[in-house]
């Protein structure tokens, strides 16, 4: 009897606790606002100030702990220059981003994050993805044939988007649509040309290629970065309104093409940093050009602004028109950004209307990408492959079409297939990392077998297929008598300010030494230059029978062999004026190129 009484007592307690828990859960559920909405405006109206600021915050993936996205309602996560999963393949990218996305679905309103990275010439963060020629090479295609250039840019964007989606990434911080006018600038190769018209139609086409295939583009870096004094990265450009209007067409075309995001330049215009330049970010970009997407800051760029304190710098950026801040520098940094921005709104230093506008722009982009059509984590499964043979064939054709034949003495290019003993010389001849340049797996890129692809040497050897003996020597020293030498010279990999040159862009010392060695063979010398800009060649070219500007062709450098041995014709033209020395005599004017 006692046992039954105790049993009944515990049953009653259990029922009571269970009922109370159900009531509690029911109450909690009814306290949540309805998440049904028809327009981005309606969704923003449901958001708290904290949730809006969360959407305006982008954190580096290494700085995000489990639970952070849910707690702070973060709007975005990124991978910085060298930030990758433990194993750099599609499966691990998908798994990593799915974890972030699944947590974003657990927030009060279930707004998914948007993950961004620098997929600059292909899905270039991922080993074994296809790496296209950098934009300077695509610009060479366009300088030779406008329609082929437009088609190449669109295809590069399309394939990049496909390989990004296969790795679960839907936002790239590209393309650069600046107009580079000083080749000493380390980002020259990220630009299509010194010619505004080429930059305009190529940027528009690449953006369409990306966005027609489900990935948000980011036009950058607005504006004037290619006009800084002495070509200094993050420098100052002296531009009146006529000067702005001269380089504005690429941005106008990109806005008209519905580019979803924009990144301001680190540089200043007339002494004022672009990230706090309200006239250019709001009055010109958002009002005059009618840009409807959102503005994302560059890496920790807010810390460079005026004001003396991080809090004031945040106010300057947001009030100028920055919508989302890349708050890098550690977990405490992005948390501090959230805290400071909330305080600024509460103090009236940043109007709530500016916050509402920013949140609306971000939600609108996510809706346009289709993020709200899928609500079950994981967000995506692997839905494609990277580095397919078909994609590599497309990239190889772009490599061939981007080659610019600058010199062809004694018809050396046409005679080349008849030679039986050829020396391939130079550090760049069998070096995928050098032919890819910066923004290749790592931020700065590096020499060597950084990714899957075909080197220049491999391409030539395959093209000849035993019809001639082919020898490779990095320093140009080899035994034998040679009918011709193909010498590959150029620049080592670099990105951003690491590529700035305060003086001239001369041929590297080890390349000069190699050239001295190959001249001793007393046979024709064909020079292939791998570079992110026209380099200073002085009178050295007088020693060369052939000279080819190969730019930074990417992973499929073997495509150079197709124009050397007649499979494809030389159709590229130089998208930049080429001088003997900086500001010196013009050797090859803009648009120059031989057909053989």
Task: Indicate the percent of residues in helices.
Answer: 25-40%
The helix count comes to 20
Strand content bin? 5-15%
Helix/strand/pairing class, anyone? alpha/beta
**Spans of 5+ residues with little confidence (pLDDT < 50)?**
1-34
CATH superfamily heading of the domain at 389-588: Glycoside hydrolase family 3 C-terminal domain
Provide mean pLDDT, rounded. Answer: 92
Largest sheet: 6 strands, mixed
Q: What CATH architecture of the domain at 389-588 do you see?
A: 3-Layer(aba) Sandwich
User: What fold name goes in the CATH topology slot of the domain at 389-588?
Assistant: Rossmann fold
Shape: elongated
Gyration radius over CA = 27 Å
Strand adjacency order, main sheet: 11-16-15-14-12-13
Could you please describe the fold and organization of this structure?
This protein is an alpha/beta fold and 596 residues long. Among the domains are: 54-116 and 294-368, no CATH class; 389-588, 3-Layer(aba) Sandwich (Rossmann fold). The protein has helices spanning 2-31, 40-46, 49-55, 68-72, 90-104, 135-144, 146-165, 196-211, 241-247, 249-256, 278-288, 310-320, 331-347, 352-368, 389-402, 412-415, 432-436, 456-464, 509-519, 560-564; strands at 57-60, 76-78, 114-116, 218-222, 236-237, 261-264, 268-269, 272-273, 294-295, 325-326, 404-408, 421-425, 469-473, 484-490, 525-530, 546-551, 578-579, 586-588. The strands form 5 sheets. It has a 6-stranded mixed beta sheet, with helices on both faces. It has a 4-stranded parallel beta sheet with strand order 3-2-1-10. Helix 7 runs parallel beside helix 8 (196-211) and helix 8 packs parallel to helix 10. The radius of gyration is 27 Å and the shape is elongated.
